[in-house]
């Protein structure tokens, strides 16, 4: 939970700041290559007779269960002072983290964040190919402000009254630009009335996702919770999820006797990172960190998922979130335990849904499908997996389904007190009965680094 593990972003910094361009590009490509994350459905109430006890009602994803930060009594965030940030780039995870950092920086300075630009595509070098897309094309503007009211605030450029009243704040870079210096700069800006007086503070510098991490996990979780996809993208994710559920229903109907037909189909989403670039990258990571737990082979993943206690009680659709290049060979579809029915985008027949969209939106759909899965299994060294587990953990806490620090056991005694609702697992770490290790985010962690840049810390 602290800085003892060599975090991946240090390496990004390394390569970035030292202009070891090649190494950097390699890391970048790895980070981005897997765009194949998948997500699934909104779980329905599930029969409690099974060992699983984690099915949440459909409403669990509705805003009613989200935290509304009504801090208005405490003054909230100034709406006449703004922070402007440079275009945010890289993969979906990096962009989400960077957006959260931009908001938390704005909160620290008690300013409204001006609608940031995200990047729809994955080009890193040629900035003109980044396909800028404003935040509100991906996430709902008003919803964000109502959910995060009083905590952080989003504004529009048209809210600015004096367009020339701008202070340019240069972010340093390089090894010498330490976390302390970065924080120090922000504190000075905050305290200096001659700077704080400006209507707009415009942050300059490359790659805001490299900004240092000054905030606890809980703050990030609060911002992520307010990021609700626009309806169009949500609907696409729902189409994918209902396709998965539909297949589950059909299979249950055809394979089981009439008695069990009342069972609701549920699905497992597996963020399966086995593409070539990842394997090369993770082997290097293992060497560097002197651990053996990072890389899991296809076989290991299949075996561990098959050993999840209770998973085999009915035919179950396993949604495979895999990189696009793995869609071609089909080998990920064979070798699963009986009763587990593997599907990826192509086999599911939803490839056409994805194809319409640029990278960022494809990823966002995948993310949503994984987020909504009844069971999620990912790699604890993957930022994508980690963010999904973070959001799932946050929702469980919000619902009161788990208590913080209770180490992944549910409050409910409904299934003998042994299960956890809506579980997530890390397949790269061995858990009970030969299955993957249960995984929940420790919201008390003091920095996002522990959960997002390569960690085997699953807090269970
Ligand atoms: C399901 O659970 C209910 C209540 O706990 C019980 O009465 C019923 O027999 C169970 N059904 C099966 C198939 O186990
Ligand atoms: C405002 O919200 C933050 C984060 O939720 C909380 O820690 C703080 O106590 C709240 N302040 C007031 C005055 O309500
Ligand atoms: C922001 O400034 C307003 C007005 O000065 C104050 O009431 C509020 O508490 C401040 N909010 C934060 C988060 O510092
Ligand atoms: C706008 O801001 C600039 C720079 O602070 C200032 O010189 C100018 O007087 C302001 N204009 C108005 C109309 O307030
Ligand atoms: C790597 O870890 C193993 C066991 O955890 C230990 O015995 C070994 O000394 C470590 N090697 C290095 C280079 O730290
Ligand atoms: C769960 O069951 C145990 C033992 O049966 C009991 O002591 C405990 O109070 C129960 N917890 C809840 C939250 O009902
Ligand atoms: C969560 O993080 C806090 C702060 O780092 C730590 O004290 C606590 O032991 C962690 N809890 C678990 C269950 O790992």
Automatic annotation (TrEMBL):
Annotated Pfam families: O-FucT
Domain of life from the UniProt record: Eukaryota
Protein name: O-fucosyltransferase family protein
Residue spans crossing the bilayer: 21-40
Keyword flag Transmembrane helix: yes
Signal sequence coordinates: none
Family: Belongs to the glycosyltransferase GT106 family.
One MF annotation (Gene Ontology) recorded for this entry: glycosyltransferase activity
Record lineage: Eukaryota, Viridiplantae, Streptophyta, Embryophyta, Tracheophyta
Keywords attached to this entry: Carbohydrate metabolism, Fucose metabolism, Glycosyltransferase, Membrane, Transferase, Transmembrane, Transmembrane helix
């Amino acid at each position: 939970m602290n800085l003892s593990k060599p975090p991946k972003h240090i390496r990004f910094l390394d390569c970035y700041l030292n202009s070891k361009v090649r190494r950097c590009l390699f890391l970048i490509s790895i980070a981005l290559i897997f765009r194949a994350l998948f997500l699934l459905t909104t779980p329905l109430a599930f029969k409690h007779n099974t060992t699983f006890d984690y099915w949440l009602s459909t409403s669990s994803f509705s805003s009613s269960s989200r935290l509304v930060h009504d801090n208005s009594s405490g003054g909230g965030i100034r709406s006449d002072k703004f922070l402007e940030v440079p275009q945010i780039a890289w993969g979906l995870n990096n962009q989400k983290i960077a957006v959260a950092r931009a908001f938390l920086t704005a909160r620290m300075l008690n300013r409204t964040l001006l609608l940031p630009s995200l990047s729809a595509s994955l080009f890193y070098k040629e900035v003109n190919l980044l396909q800028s897309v404003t935040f509100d094309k991906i996430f709902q503007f008003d919803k964000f402000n109502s959910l995060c009211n009083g905590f952080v605030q989003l504004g529009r450029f048209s809210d600015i009254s004096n367009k020339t009243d701008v202070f340019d704040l240069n972010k340093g870079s390089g090894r010498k630009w330490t976390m302390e210096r970065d924080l120090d700069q922000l504190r000075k800006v905050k305290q200096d009335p001659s700077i704080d007086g400006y209507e707009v503070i415009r942050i300059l510098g490359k790659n805001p996702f490299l900004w240092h991490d000054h905030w606890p996990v809980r703050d990030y979780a609060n911002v992520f919770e307010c990021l609700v996809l626009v309806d169009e993208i949500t609907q696409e994710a729902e189409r994918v999820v209902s396709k998965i559920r539909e297949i589950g229903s059909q299979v249950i109907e055809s394979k089981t006797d009439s008695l069990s037909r009342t069972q609701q189909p549920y699905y497992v989403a597996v963020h399966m990172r086995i593409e070539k670039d990842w394997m090369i990258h993770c082997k290097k990571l293992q060497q560097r960190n002197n651990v053996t737990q990072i890389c899991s082979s296809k076989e290991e993943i299949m075996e561990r998922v098959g050993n999840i206690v209770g998973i085999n009680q009915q035919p179950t659709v396993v949604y495979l979130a895999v990189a696009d290049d793995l869609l071609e060979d089909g080998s990920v579809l064979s070798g699963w335990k009986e009763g587990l029915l593997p599907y990826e985008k192509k086999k599911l027949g939803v490839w056409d849904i994805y194809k319409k969209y640029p990278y960022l939106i494809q990823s966002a759909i995948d993310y949503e499908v994984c987020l909504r899965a009844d069971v999620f299994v990912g790699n604890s060294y993957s930022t994508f997996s980690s963010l999904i587990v973070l959001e799932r953990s946050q929702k469980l806490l919000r619902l009161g389904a788990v208590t913080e620090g209770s180490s992944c056991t549910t409050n409910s005694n409904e299934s003998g007190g042994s299960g956890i609702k809506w579980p997530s697992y890390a397949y790269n770490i061995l858990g009970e009965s030969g299955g993957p290790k249960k995984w929940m985010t420790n919201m008390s962690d003091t920095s996002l680094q522990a959960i997002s840049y390569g960690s085997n810390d699953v807090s269970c």
